[in-house]
Predict the 3D structure of the following.
Amino acid sequence: YLMAQLALRGQGDAAAAAKRLVDYQKANPQSHHFYDASEALGQLAASMGKVEAAAKYFSDMKSAASTETKMRSKYLLGTILLNQGKAPEARASFKEVADGNADSPNGKKFQKLARIALYRCDVLDGKGDEAIAGLHKLIEDSDTADSLLMAGVYN
């Protein structure tokens, strides 16, 4: 897992990290780290341009018992779809997250990130003014010190 995090920061071999994580998952399919490994594998695959593999690993996370992990799975899958130019499919994935029941701070953060992504979809659909208004409202209702959230808003 650490190798994957280093590789994602450009400080390691992504292919070697992915192989180690795949080996770990095969040897430990019941591990409580299985879904963290799936997320890391999806991120590694995406960083190497292997979007189909990334989508598979992010989809694997949907079978988790944790609502938050399922939300993260759908959000990450939506980002892959959006980056592939599949805005309608991405919108459906983001909408599931945005409309879901979040009972944790991280779950609520993913809901906000999904709303931001939905505004990106709106822009692609020619609804830029509505998207900007929605983003302004989201900023007003959010902690502006949350760097991940604000990066989503401003990028």
In short: The chain has nine helices and no strands. The CA atoms of residues 31 and 151 lie 32 Å apart.
